[in-house]
Amino acid sequence: MILQHKKLVDLLQKAYSAEKAAAFAYQGHAGSLKNSEEVKNIRQIEIDEWNHRREVLELMNHYGVSVSKYYEFRFHVIGKIISASCYVIGWFMPFYFAGRLESGNVCEYFRMMHYFHDLGIKDHDQVLYEMGMKEKEHEIYFLRKIRDSRYLPFFEKIFAWGGMKSYNDVDIEKKYTLENSDAYCRKEAV
Ligand SMILES: [Fe+2]
Ligand SMILES: [Fe+2]
Fold first, then answer.
1. Ligand 1 centre and the CA of 27: distance in Å?
2. Which pLDDT tens digit goes with each residue over 156-181?
3. Residue 163 in contact with residue 100, Cβ under 8 Å?
4. Residue 188 located in a structural domain
5. How far is the CA of 156 from the centre of ligand 2 (A)?
6. Residues 27-35: what's their mean pLDDT?
7. CA of 53, nearest ligand number
8. Any domain includes 190
9. Which end of the chain is more exposed for a tag (fewer CB within 10 A), N or C?
10. How far apart are the first and last CA of the chain?
11. Which CATH number does the domain housing residue 44 bear?
């Protein structure tokens, strides 16, 4: 079956490559840290991102969606730059920007679910739900790390993410069930 949904095809290709950028970024992030607990946690998050990439590829292969050479190149470069920058920008910023990025990634998987639903396909709800929730867990991990930092109010004001602002409407304490999760990420602003 060919996916007659331009936005969905693009989102799959973009997510596949962006997961690589994230994994590269976390390699640098883990490498720049001294605290062994933090290193362990970031390495686990890196593994999660490689798993996401594999799962997105399975979806793409299922529908004959090709890997985008453009996104692969672009996100390779982005990931490597972020990875290297982690060694020079201090402790706070890698945690902050990782959290901000993860916050946006949550809705990518719920939007993918919406697009599949547009085509009447519900077969992938479970895997998309789990990937979206995993990104939410990542966001929360990073937020907890920086929540008490004196830099947060300033960064939250400038970059619009932090204790008060998120890029998604998922509340991990009161999660919707899989069946109701189509309601996530419907608002323009999230
Ligand atoms: Fe991911
Ligand atoms: Fe993530």
1. 14
2. 999 999 998 999 999 988 899 998 99
3. no
4. no
5. 20
6. 97
7. 1
8. no
9. N
10. 31
11. 1.20.1260.10
